[in-house]
Amino acid sequence: MSAALPSLSTPRLVLKALQKHQAETLSELANGPEIADNTAAIPSPYTLETALTFIDGQEENFRSGQSLALGVHLRESDELIGVISLRLSAAHRSGHLGGWTAAHRRNQGYAAEAAGAIMAFGFTELMLHRVGSQCFARNKGSARVMEKIGLGYEGCMKGAFLKNGIHEDMLLYGLLRADWQAVS
Predict the structure, then answer these.
(1) What is the pTM for the complete model shown?
(2) Which segments does the entry list as coiled coil (predicted)?
(3) Domain boundaries, the chain
(4) What is the b/e burial string over 67-99, where b = at least 16 CB atoms within 10 angstroms of the residue's CB?
(5) Residue 29 and residue 157: Cα distance in Å, rounded?
(6) Under CATH, which architecture does the 8-131 domain have?
(7) What pLDDT, in 10s, does the model give residues 51-110?
(8) How many helices (H) and strands (E) does the chain have?
């Protein structure tokens, strides 16, 4: 896989590699309301060191085929508003979609726009067979994003994830490239 991270454009967004000078902003946004609470893998607090480690690892993770993670930026101002990613499995030719949007930019369609773009890249450029995702059952916003971009509901794993001392139900979503191509 190429070492260079792609830059993806949508009508309102640019998805591109995060830069070290954005570490403080990334840390502030990731510490925002509901980010760590609604995600399985984001630590809380999200320190400046955590942000720098994440930024420093982007290219190597992509080059090694582990993941593609990009900062989500508003096209008109270059403001960083979140992160979108695909955790990759070369053995299964699949990607697991993840991401988050800053609290002050939610409910404006940015998450679905970014998720749709990285999913399309996964199917067309990475030749993935499947893209899937999951969210806590209580996270209605994430479930809505997955449905908006065409991922189909595949079921609920009851009590599958221990978060903050509570066993959470996880909703599963997925889409095959052939099904995506049929509606694209």
Answers:
(1) 0.95
(2) none
(3) 8-131
(4) bbbbbbbeeeeeebbbbbbbbbeeeeebbbbbb
(5) 29
(6) 3-Layer(aba) Sandwich (3.40)
(7) 999 999 999 999 999 999 999 999 999 999 999 999 999 999 999 999 999 999 999 999
(8) 5, 8
